[in-house]
């Protein structure tokens, strides 16, 4: 019986190739969209799921209370993790890992390459699922200067040599490290990423500041015991930092953050989980996937019901021959399933062809995974859902025809079906218009922030890590670059200009409220930094060579009473009180007890935006201590050719720092990288809006063709009576354009509500102007008019004699 139904369905398909091809194309486009989105969603929700202990591993976060808000940080003191393991009930193990990717130069024989990695405790290998390809976790860090590489890094260092255990690599032309293990490459959807990992003890010995409770500088991971109560552990952690630091003011509260939430829910508002993060995008695009699938199914319903009169006699004959309504429903549902199956085959082929471009767009390494049983089940489920949704209404509608009316040739009452068709068209274009408006708003918001006055000049600014003798030869490098016509200025600093730097709440000044807790950023720079970065002196003076402070290796001034000349931002000047800040003094505790840095304000610069590009300018203090800088900035000539300038810059660096390969970044590229999530939304919304419109237009094209076919004789009569071709085209288009116009009325308030809520998450945002709705409405009308014009014009130009001679 089922075979007979599908045979009939296949014959029906062959007899109506044009309409069925439109149906299959619409369904396949919808399935391609859904398939690509669901692959992306699958990758997002499976972040870190490969870790076998994911339900027991936590990241230590700290809520820091300030005067007007509570901020959440991931930095902890270097001594905290082992102390927690010893002091707090319920903790099985802990692991310290350096926060940022550390890029180091590796020498392997004559080869010199950079690789980024982290320093970590040996417990890293037992807490996280990191399979060893060579070596084992037990002896990986048995000696201090040992290093573990990933497979890709081992290939980068040693080529095709598979036996690399025991080989040595020289790091930063200083210390030899022994390769003690090779790890399987980390999955792309792992939060923890590195090319190499070395013992944390190396970093700890080189970083005296990490050995103090008052300095937060590492990431602390915790593994709870089986059955441990998280609430109990967090209760013990609440005032743990105060107890260890010996303070009575409760401003810092630590808590554990589950690995299951790291990727999707890592968003905190005033110290509390907001429920937002990447999960917002997962929900958004999952919804869009289902909506686009629904739009594709609407096309099937519309075309099937619109062509009801063509199949009316077939239904009548079948009913007279004894076919019941149930069998007719099954038959038409079978046709829908056949369409969905053919659409799925086409969609899989299209998706495989488009996947490389999609991967490039979303910066992932997604695969179709057709050997994955869950993917096969999902495809089958998608076919069943699309077949049932697309075929349900047409099957019940067609099977309900009265055979007496049909076979007598009486006109069928299709009023309800016509209204439903109109409603479906309105639904299609409503979604399309909402997506058009959303795309425009997202684009405008991104451009609004990217064109924001940052307070410094990010253009023509090149950043380099200070490697080898770069700091020692700084004055020579600066002179060579300026003499060669490369640079307008060169400076060094300790933190990237557009990102957050080192922060403190310990600065004191006359008139500061006793319990005031204000977060202040600190930058260590050379005298040239202010002009190199493009900051402007608002009052006072810039740094001079005489402002340079000579200090010991442990941030200890040679003279305990030495006064540091500092420059502050305007927001810091406001905090110090009324009037000019020039000449005002502050104090900052040093590393030793009863040791203070005395700070004298000699200059005030304009506020500038860093860290959060949507936020406000935060207070900053600049210290002139070049010894502790880690980055070099070069302000290149704006009129020079970038490639030629970089080539000259490389020549200078090879001369003045020959042991290290030339490596650089453009600050404006870093700036653009801060909008990756927004740019992804923008690009995907553009793609999906275009495809939603395409699917809607396919349906509209089919309906226009059918309408023109039904009204052939009417058109012939009108032409005989003197109607013009343009008038007839307008008459046929009018009904469709009315539907699109009504879609605009529905879509505008929906789009405003959705996008207004999306914009609320940004402090620095645009306002939604009425022009956006006008443009989207006009665009939708023009697209609809262009879609139906081919069929309407074709019908209007038809010879009336040919139209009227056939009954």
Give the topology.
Blueprint: H1 2-15, H2 17-45, E1 57-65, E2 70-73, E3 76-77, H3 80-87, E4 91-98, E5 102-108, E6 111-120, H4 124-127, E7 132-134, E8 146-150, H5 151-158, E9 168-171, E10 175-183, E11 196-199, H6 200-206, E12 216-224, H7 230-237, H8 240-245, E13 252-258, E14 268-269, E15 272-273, H9 278-306, H10 308-320, H11 325-362, H12 373-398, H13 403-407, H14 415-450, E16 461-465, H15 474-483, E17 487-493, E18 502-504, E19 520-525, H16 529-533, E20 537-540, E21 563-569, H17 570-575, E22 585-589, E23 596-605, E24 620-624, E25 631-636, H18 642-656, E26 665-666, H19 667-673, H20 676-710, H21 712-720, H22 725-759, H23 770-796, H24 800-805
Parallel strand pairs: 6-11, 8-10, 19-24, 21-23
Antiparallel strand pairs: 1-2, 1-12, 1-13, 3-12, 4-12, 5-6, 5-9, 7-10, 8-11, 9-10, 14-15, 16-25, 16-26, 17-25, 18-19, 20-23, 21-24, 22-23
Helix pairs in contact: 1-11, 2-9, 2-11, 2-20, 9-12, 9-14, 9-20, 11-12, 14-20, 14-22, 14-23, 15-18, 20-23, 22-23
Could you write a compact summary of the structure shown?
This protein is α+β, with helices and mostly antiparallel strands. The chain is built from 24 helices and 26 strands.
Strand content: 15-25%
Compute the gyration radius: what is it? 34 Å
Mean pLDDT value: 83
Q: Could you give the distance between the termini?
A: 37 Å
Binned, the helix content reads 40-55%
Q: What spatial form do the alpha-carbon principal axes imply?
A: globular
Count of discrete alpha- or pi-helical segments spanning 4 or more residues: 24
Detail the poorly predicted runs. Answer: none
- Which sheet architecture does the biggest sheet show? 7 strands, mixed
Number of folding domains?
3
